């Protein structure tokens, strides 16, 4: 019988009783390596109950003491970096270097959140009226939920952990059921770092567990990252239930290549950004938009030559550029999209379908694919493929090129490659997309800025992490105070008015 992955509730591993399980694969071998318990509505409710108790203890600790727990946690994760990356890679399929990147980008948010004593400072107005001062403070929401996707099983849970926990909330995390082991290990490390029990609960599950969180009265806010249709569902359900929400969705990021761009660098950037992590990044660059025929011909020829040299291997092969995709179903979906692209009339220059790795024939591998002459009417262009597939859409000028990401249903990230500062600056100012890279292929903002797309890439008013994260996980209370002296003449209660 395969290994069982349990929930983590009230500071320890918790064996669920639903009798329902999800299979956890090793994508490199195609074999089931574990099964994860899927929580019932009652199991979620009991995790929320424990979280309420933990939250009262945690919120009573001053922010600096909470920050010290974050510092210790960061050191513990760093000390275990190698084994965590190995575990992550074995369930997700991304290569070890990418798995470490997943952990490190998460830790950067923890590092930012250590500044919480400063970040929670409110505002103060002395003498807003005679003898009246006004001050505001940020207080935790209570128990909040985080629901994460499979593609960053460490980074995205750490976005939620850093921001929700530092601000004094308890977090119930529902990680992806496809690669759930790393979040559990991270929770154990939080306990070692001194987090009181109940403050971080992990419930594994599928729609039943998610719905239980969305409908639970004691869940005050939900932070979700995943595909757009589910994100929209999360947003609508939270709104109907009076909960605060932020729901990040899918993406289809464009990289615009101007004729003056450094082509060697551009090709290198696209190899990493389109094919790295098998294209399973919401900030990947699956669409290239070369401007002008010469640029396009040069780019396509160079990409074709270089992409076929990429080495696809098992996730712990140090020489592999990228590993398998997460599941057989996802592999089939990507291969279907490639077929659809051909059917719709795009030119398939490299075909990654039917790729097989010797000795790992059952692994979920796909070779690099490259399409030229893709057009906006094609559904394979309009929809997210989320695989190692690069689509080239040719444009005649910058205006035509810039209209593509601006008009696309998704608006997560976009990049422009050029030596022309003015063109880049104007593009960045005008493009209808949330995160922009100028000669930066994957412009994921650093932890002290914030992460968020536009249009169908995010159903929210607040971004993930950064000061937006602090705002999302706290509520403002404003106090207007007056301390009368009791002396005659101090009775008048004067507040500022139009008179
Ligand atoms: P997904 O939407 O299938 O799953 C995300 C989470 O939702 C998981 O925890 C899953 O268990 C849960 N879920 C799945 N179906 C559900 C349902 N019917 N009802 C309620 N909950 C449900 O996404 P995924 O395949 O795990 O991740 C890939 C997607 O996430 C891609 O679309 C990618 O672009 C997106 N993503 C977006 C960002 C971003 O910040 N915008 C970051 C990473 C990934």
SSE layout and pairings?
Blueprint: E1 3-5, E2 7-9, E3 12-14, E4 21-26, E5 31-37, H1 41-60, H2 63-79, H3 81-92, H4 96-113, H5 116-119, E6 124-129, E7 132-140, E8 143-147, H6 155-166, E9 170-174, H7 181-193, E10 200-202, H8 207-214, E11 219-225, H9 228-240, E12 244-248, E13 254-257, H10 263-275, E14 287-290, H11 293-307, H12 328-343, E15 347-350, E16 369-372, H13 379-382, E17 389-392, H14 398-407, E18 410-411, E19 413-417, H15 421-430, E20 435-438, E21 454-455, E22 458-459, H16 466-472, E23 474-482
Parallel strand pairs: 1-5, 8-9, 8-11, 9-10, 11-12, 13-14, 13-19, 14-17, 16-17, 19-20
Antiparallel strand pairs: 2-3, 4-5, 6-7, 7-23, 12-22, 15-16, 18-21
The chain binds nicotinamide-adenine-dinucleotide (NAD).
Nicotinamide-adenine-dinucleotide binds next to helix 8.
Description:
The chain has 499 residues and is of the alpha/beta class. It folds into 2 domains: 3-249 and 458-479, 3-Layer(aba) Sandwich (Aldehyde Dehydrogenase, Chain A, domain 1), CATH 3.40.605; 254-438, 3-Layer(aba) Sandwich (Aldehyde Dehydrogenase, Chain A, domain 2), CATH 3.40.309. Helices cover 38% and strands 21% of the residues. It has 16 helices and 23 strands. The strands form 6 sheets. It has a 7-stranded mixed β-sheet with strand order 15-16-17-14-13-19-20, with helices on both faces. The protein has a 6-stranded mixed β-sheet with strand order 10-9-8-11-12-22, with helices on both faces. A 3-stranded mixed β-sheet has the order 1-5-4, covered by helices on one side. Strand 11, helix 9 and strand 12 form a beta-alpha-beta unit. Bound molecules: nicotinamide-adenine-dinucleotide. Nicotinamide-adenine-dinucleotide (NAD) is lined by residues 147-152, 174, 176-177, 206-207, 210, 225-227, 230, 248-251, 282, 384, 386, 412, 453, 457. Nicotinamide-adenine-dinucleotide (NAD) binds at residues 147-152, 174, 176-177, 206-207, 210, 225-227, 230, 248-251, 282, 384, 386, 412, 453, 457.
